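Notebook entry, structure prediction.
Reason for the run: the old model in the group folder had no record of what sequence produced it. Starting over properly, with the input documented here first.
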Amino acid sequence: LASVPLAIGGSLLGTAPMAYVTDNTDDQTRGQALALLRTAQDVGFLLGGITLGALAQLTSISTALGFTSVGMLVICTYFAAVARETVRGLAAGLLKAKRK
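New structure, fully documented this time:
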C-alpha cells in the first residue's frame, strides 16, 4: 500500500523539476542548471537507496516505503507552496482564453 504514493510521486518528481529548471533559466545557463539538477538527483538516489535499504533491513520494507512516501509528500507539498508559476508565451495565452 505504501508503494502507491511512491509511484505517483516518483512519476511527478522525474519530470516536474526538469521542466521547472528549464523554464527558469536562460539559454546560456540551462545546461549547467540541468546538469546540477541531474547530479543532485543521482546523489539523492544513491544515498536514499543506501539509507532506505538499511532501514528496510532493520525494520521492514513497508516501513522504508512509508518513510519514502511521506518524504516525497512533504517535498512535493513544499515545492507546490513556494514555486512560482512559470507558464509563459503561447501556453499562458491559451490558459487565459480558456478562463473566459
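Summary: DSSP finds four helices and no strands in the chain.
The old model has been moved to the deprecated folder.
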